[in-house]
Structures are given as structure tokens and as C-alpha cells.
Amino acid sequence: MLSPPNAPKLPSVSVSPSAEIEEGSSVTLTCSSDANPAANYTWYMKEQNAHLSSVNEGPRLVLSSIKSSDSGQYYCKADNLLGSTISDPFPIDVKYAPKLPSVSVSPSAEIEEGSSVTLTCSSDANPAANYTWYKENEDSPKASGQIFNISDFRAEHSGSYSCGAQNKLGRSNSTFHQIVVAGSQKLLSFVTIPVVLLAVISLPVFLWIRRKRASRDSSEPEERADTREECVPDQPEQQEDLQYASVHFSNNRADPLYSNMRAARPLRHTEQQEQCCPEDQRSGPWRGSSCIYSTVNKSR
Prior knowledge:
This protein has 300 residues and is of the alpha+beta class. It has one helix at 184-227; strands at 12-16, 21-22, 27-32, 40-46, 52-57, 60-63, 72-80, 83-86, 90-92, 94-95, 102-106, 117-122, 130-135, 143-144, 147-150, 159-167, 170-173, 177-179, 243-249, 261-262, 292-298. Helices cover 15% and strands 34% of the residues. Strands 4, 5, 7, 8 and 9 form a five-stranded antiparallel β-sheet that branches. The protein is elongated and about 120 Å long. The N and C termini lie far apart (171 Å).
């Protein structure tokens, strides 16, 4: 027996899967209503301004890779030639791990020693996150809870702080936020600036000393090579370049240096004293010239 024509009855909405909806999963909403002729279906989502916006047509609404922004109230409207009706709101609550937390500090101005400082951590999470506070370079947590209060703030409290937000779906840590007692940065500058100036002043002096030492080291091999030159008068192959003279000094002559020079006698190595080139003539302008030997006799 055919049922009489009728407008759609109040639609019912079911969801699959029926378990808790986590971000990234796929969700299907199905709408059904008793109507003759069969109803047409339209899906709506209630926005924050309470306005209903159409999101899909058909008995099924598929939300693939659902996001946190998909959370909200959903409605199904059924209509035919005899009328229309809309379902009760169906809530979609998407669960997700904490987003990157942010940290705020009060007071935000310079922190005076002995004052009270309040740090507040906030993170978008569903379910709500639990918060833990950390100080840089310290392993153990400093505090727990969304608000971290430091009364009687001292220099030893200065440092970088971060908070961690965690729920059953995951965890996220904030970046470090530096908190410094007013005046400690000035002290740091007072110590740092002289050190930097000293380094700047010392660098040219160091480079000058290094260049001086390098120049001295490069000249030493030549000097050592010069000192190895020796006068060897007895070697036969060198006697062709040697010249000898005998000089006599007389007290009654006007020019004692040149007037009594005469030809040199044959060299007697066993009787006469040989004088080699002065050491200071082995380098400089005299370097490389032939040695001149002389025998000096002084008459009284």
C-alpha cells in the first residue's frame, strides 16, 4: 500500500566513524528523512556570526582530512514539493595537538630588581593543553601551569624562558623569551666594550711585531752566509788574487803613509804576521772584492 504524500519529517544525522574525531582523519555525515516524494538534502554549517552557510548538497557530507577549522555545528535540511524541514544541530568537535605556544611577559617594560614578573603561555589545543616552564641550560622544569610568576626578581633569575604545551595528541614548545634585570645589560656593556677596544688596539701591534720578526728572520740567512766566508791565504789556487806590501814608518818624514812604501818581499809564512781582510769588509760594499794582505814594520 502506498503511503500518502507528505512533507519531510525531522531529519536525523549520523556520523562515521562515531569515535572521537582527530585532525587529519576523514569524516562522513549522513542525513535521512521520511518524505513522500523523496526529499532533497542540503548541508549547512553555522558560522561564528550565527549565519548558516551552505557547504554541500546530497544526503552525505564527506569531510576528508578534517581540520580544526571544520569544528562547528552542522545542519541538514530536507525538502520536497510539500515542504521542508531542518535537523537539529549536529556538533563536530575536531581534536588536535597544541599549536606553537606564545609567551607574554608582564611588566613588558624594564624589569627592576625586586619586582614581580609574570609569564603567561597560551596555545591553541583541543583538548586544552597542560603547560610546563623551562629555563635555558637547565634540565628540570621551573614551574607548571599556564601562568608562571616570579616574585622578588633577582639577577640570578635573568635568562631565557620557554613553555611547553602538551595534551594527549602531542606537544609543542615555544621559542625562548629572554628576561633581564634592568642594569645588567649595562654592566655587560661596561665589561665587553673595554675588551673589544683592547683587542682592536692590540691587533695592529701584534701584526707589526709579526712583520718585524719575519723581516729579521729573512735577513739572518744572508748574514750567516757572509760569516762563513773565510780568508785562506795558503790555498795555491787563490794566491793569484793576493797582493802583499811592506810598509815602513819613519818619524822624520812628512808623509809617513805613502813615502816609505816599497816593493813587497816574498811572503814568509813562518816569520811575518799575516793580516786578513777585516771582518767588516766581508759584507757591504767590500763584499766579493779580493783580499789585500800587508806586512807592517815600524822603525823607531
